[in-house]
């Protein structure tokens, strides 16, 4: 079943303001992170694939933590992110990030 709240493939996304607020990410790289939404994950429509702009900079740390298989999969298909934790850049859910939510 499709997830109605999912961005469309190709949309520019960022972490949603509510997610950043709830996880205490007011500064640092989280609020600045941007990527391109690839698709809703076939195995669970609550998750989607995002190709983050900063992926290659983070790949070595991801490989140490999750392994090379994870990095290879994420590089090819995008990283899995819960749909509720991302928002289309410029949307109301994103704009709260810019307003100091």
Task: Please give a structural write-up.
By secondary structure, the protein is an alpha+beta fold. It is built from four helices and five strands. The chain has helices at 17-22, 55-66, 68-77, 92-98; strands spanning 12-15, 34-40, 47-52, 79-82, 86-88. Strands 4-3-2-1-5 form a five-stranded antiparallel sheet. Helix 2 (55-66) runs antiparallel to helix 3 (68-77). The chain is globular. The termini are far apart.
Write the SSE topology.
Blueprint: E1 12-15, H1 17-22, E2 34-40, E3 47-52, H2 55-66, H3 68-77, E4 79-82, E5 86-88, H4 92-98
Antiparallel strand pairs: 1-2, 1-5, 2-3, 3-4
Protein traits:
globular; 101 residues; five-stranded antiparallel β-sheet; 5 strands; single chain; alpha+beta; 35% helix
């Amino acid at each position: 079943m499709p997830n109605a709240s999912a961005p469309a493939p190709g949309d520019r996304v960022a972490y949603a303001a509510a997610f950043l607020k709830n996880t205490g990410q007011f500064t640092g790289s989280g609020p600045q992170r941007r990527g391109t939404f690839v698709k809703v994950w076939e195995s669970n429509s609550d998750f989607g694939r995002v190709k983050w702009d900063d992926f290659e900079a983070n790949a070595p740390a991801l490989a140490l933590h999750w392994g090379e298989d994870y990095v290879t999969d994420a590089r090819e298909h995008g990283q899995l992110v819960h749909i509720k934790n991302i928002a289309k850049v410029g949307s109301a859910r994103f704009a709260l990030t810019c307003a100091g939510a």
